[in-house]
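Cont'd.
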Amino acid sequence: MNGPAQNLLEVSDLTVSFPTATGHTDVVSHLDLTLEKGGALGIVGESGSGKSLTSLAIMGLLPGKARRSGSIRFAGDELTTMSESALRRVRGDRIAMIFQDPLSSLNPYYTVGAQIQEAYRSHRKGVSRRQARQVSIEAMERVHIKDAARRVDDYPHQFSGGMRQRVMIAMALSTEPELLIADEPTTALDVTVQAQILELLEEIRRETGSGLILITHDLAVVSEITDHIVVMRYGECVERGPVEAVFSDPQHAYTRDLLDAVPRIDDDIAALRTPGRAGEAT
Amino acid sequence: MARYLVNRVAAMAGILLLVCLFTYAVFFLFSPDPAVQICGKTCTPERIDQIRDNLGLDQPFWSQFLTFLKGIFVGRSYGDGVSAVQCSAPCLGYSFQSSQPVTDMMLQRLPVSATVAIGAAVLWLLGGVSAGLLSAVREGTWVDKTLTGLTLGGMSIPNYVLALVLQYVLVVRLQWLPFPQAVPFSDDPVQWFLNFVMPWIVLAVGYAAAYTRLTRANVIDTLQENFLRTARAKGLAPRLVWRRHALRPALTPVVTVFGMDFAGLLGGALITETVFGLNGVGKLAADSIAKNDQPVIMGVTLLAAFFVVIGNVVVDLVYTVIDPRVRVGT
């Protein structure tokens, strides 16, 4: 498709392992990912499939005991060999991340404005408090938080779940990142709020042209806003391709099971069969 | 905010009133006749009657209790006519032993207890919190294990044992500290200070051990928090992640515990003061218990309760400042 120079992110042969009693166990093994500039990639899999660790590995935020090997190239720069301080300049500035549980991901002791400004000011040296505050208000307006100029001084507990996730997104947006990684951004939210957050992510991607990696176990979520999909299981990629292709003609039994597990509104109740045991079948 | 304050103070007054009632009832119901005690060995029945009349011991419980309460707020008088003794507020009665006003006895000793408490608090806060932080940062290493072992020792060693060991080591063997002599601060500040070093250490050791554990556990918990991951994902320098995101949540519970502990100590460190012969409120309590000096025991009990209740309210108020989630009206 596109030449390597045009890819925003290229992960190749990524392996993450943790020490266990019997040596090291791979939780992500030999994973390859490619994301074009402005593209949207969905990483799908059940709990423990290694999808969240993949995102932490890209950010360089794996727990201390984890080992990482392979290559992660972001806009042409190799992240795995970068110094910690150089990596910090990428983190939060060029690659921003949104997490699953917005309440626990925000520090309860600081106003949301302070937390948004913190991200911005740590990457834009010499910015005044006033400017940073203005940026945080604008970021909150962009994620459609009403009355942002007033709410900027509120604390996370004064926001609803959906609004908190908007705050997280505003925090990520404030530095205008080239890549946004959203790790289960809607899992902790109500269905209606989920739809709004997805719409927002889609809108931002359209407006800013940033790349998006969406990590989820929810196939419906992936189908709505991503164009490519990677299905992970036990730390390995079992299937990849354009969303429509994977959805219409899944090649791997596990993908078929995942798709079958999604209830459809036009399904007959009797037609909702129990997924088979794909692991054994292949 | 004002309403919160009013509520807290009203609740505090209610609790103190209950403590008063309970304390008074205990001493009223379970103590031997004070009149006999005051009268001493050579005593006539007439004299006993006179004392009873003077103290109002012939009155029913509620009447006596109200007089006692009235004494605390507006003062009271004992006896009547020319022989009446006026006891001004806050009046907690007179010692059966020394006939001194209980309030004066406590006020004289309060500075000593406060000195012991403040010095020890400084030691245990500095020692406990820094050891706890170190232990948490070095979790699982030999530093952590050594500190954990030391805290176990610190928490289990009785104050009086530690006091004797310290006296033997620091004063007798090493002679780093002079033999304690009672001197006022104005006469010899150095000797005065050195006198307090051992009590401070003895009292601080147990608390420091507890604070080390508390701090260690809180810091380790906080480091697992999702918002720390967020802070790192923002690209903040580790120094900022620690200072802004880890320390504040981790140390907030320490404030609560400290408020309670310190307030409790203002009511007297009974064992430490007794072992070192310091004339604080704790020693006063110990002495008056030995002599069954009821008004003094009651006074000391109320004073301790007073500090604990005040300490609670102060902690609550401080919390509204440091933790936005308990801020009221928002």
